[in-house]
Amino acid sequence: QITLKESGPTLVKPTQTLTLTCAFSGFSLTTSGVGVGWIRQTPGKALEWLALIYWDDDKRFSPSLKSRLAITKDTSKDQVVLTLTNVDPADTATYYCVHKDETMSFYFDLWGQGALVTVSS
Amino acid sequence: DIQMTQSPSSVSASVGDRVTITCRASQDVSRWLAWYQQKPGKAPQLLIFSTSTLQIGVPSRFSGSGSGTDFTLTISSLQPEDFATYYCQQAISFPTFGGGTKVEMK
User: Fold this and answer.
1) A111 pLDDT band (50/70/90 cuts)?
2) Tell me: the pLDDT tens digits for B14-35?
3) Which residues of A touch B46 (CB under 8 A)?
4) Residue A99 CB burial class (10 angstroms; 0-12, 13-18, ≥19)
5) Considering only alpha carbons, which residue of chain B is nearest residue A62?
């Protein structure tokens, strides 16, 4: 059974860096074609894809946020870490960790429960 | 960016009704389109990918169609557990989502 779970701060101040960790189980991020990504949902319920890291360490980023985002993986710990620099109240959202199956393109077949992050001074 | 526009933004329906939701892409996405269902307080769940392929475990009352820029999600006979918000997502380039359609009880 595949599971993903997000962890990180619930409150971040403007201009700080947000670091979120996705701990996953039930699959390996060394399997060809597999990816783990991040999607956020604003309080208004809009969904926005942020980043994806592949089994071979290839990375993809949302063009609008690329300069502020980084994504890394630690296959020994089965974790993926997302960092977002210089946060703003507009970054307040629920952040989801997502799994991309090896047979799919940019489709996300499994999601974590989500982590609510508020950006406020 | 490819913009995804869903309509309607909400629909009121009764159990047993046929419900249709449309999604329009700002440019051709071929058949690279997915639909997700989200219930309150839960993460979205993949229902359909590649326009019409049902994810494992999704009931056959759900179906998807379309190609290019115009797509449709149909629930043939609405069940109580189908009251939720539905999102489309294009997958031909970096993913973008529609604004969602809330299916509410009439």
Assistant:
1) very high
2) 999 999 999 999 999 999 999 9
3) 107-110
4) buried
5) B94
